[in-house]
Amino acid sequence: MRVSLYSDEQAASVEAARQVAALVRRKPAAVLGLATGGTPLALYKELIRQHGQEGLDFSGCTTFNLDEYAGLAPSHPMSYHHYMRENFFEGVNLPAERTNIPDGLAEDIPAHCADYEAKIHSAGGVDLQILGLGSDGHIGFNEPTSSLGSRTRFQTLTENTRTDNARYFASLEEVPRHAITMGIATILEAREIILLAFGAAKAAAVASMIEGPLAAMVPASALQLHPAVRVFLDEGAASLLTKKDYYRYLQQQCAGQ
């Protein structure tokens, strides 16, 4: 796990976007795994800027989103379909038919989840997965105690997650109680992973993910098993790490890579 520390969220996001853009330029038919929430917004904004000002071409790419709320239609303003249109898809030249997001209204959820896994496989697997980090250490909607071998599935959300996400809704009661999410094993099959975490509220989860034991109670700790993970942090998110000086030293040694 390669840990990089930055002065603020913007600097970390721009560097993470540079890594995504490098892959797209190197492999125009790249398969990207995408995340939602507040964390990747600056990354998406930078990719849109590079598309508009530097000609970054997404026309050959395919995308798979991590998750979607169960029970929300794609047109719902709080759905992740809507989020992706508003914050990324409408700003780049990614063909709509190459975008994939779980269907929160699927009638047969187990069959839909199996089909989602099959689509990822048919696309050749995810080249680069973008992740955020929940304050309790979840990735996607893989809540604490999720199986490290889990696949795309229906997931009941914890009250902690619902409370964290309530800021996007009019009230806590409006936050869905269930979601469809890629599983931890699904995420770990991506060839490369980028995780972003910002702010002191994420510091405990970051420390557990990077320096704590592998544990189902901290789903993100499963990333310790992956050979190509890059973690982008601001000072607040990194504040509880015990090896910060070592990570900074490695970051300097690997500058430009």
Describe how the helices and strands are arranged.
Elements: E1 2-6, H1 9-26, E2 31-34, H2 41-54, E3 62-65, E4 67-69, H3 80-87, E5 99-100, H4 109-122, E6 128-131, E7 153-156, H5 159-165, E8 178-181, H6 184-188, E9 192-197, H7 203-211, E10 229-234, H8 244-253
Parallel strand pairs: 1-10, 2-3, 2-6, 3-5, 6-9, 9-10
Antiparallel strand pairs: 4-8, 7-8
Walk me through the structure.
The protein is an alpha/beta fold. The protein has one domain: Rossmann fold (3-Layer(aba) Sandwich). Helix content is 33%, strand content 16%. It is built from 8 helices and 10 strands. The chain has a 7-stranded parallel beta sheet with strand order 1-10-9-6-2-3-5. It has a 3-stranded antiparallel beta sheet with strand order 4-8-7. Helix 1 crosses helix 2. The protein starts with a strand and ends with a helix. The model has no long low-confidence stretch (mean pLDDT 96).
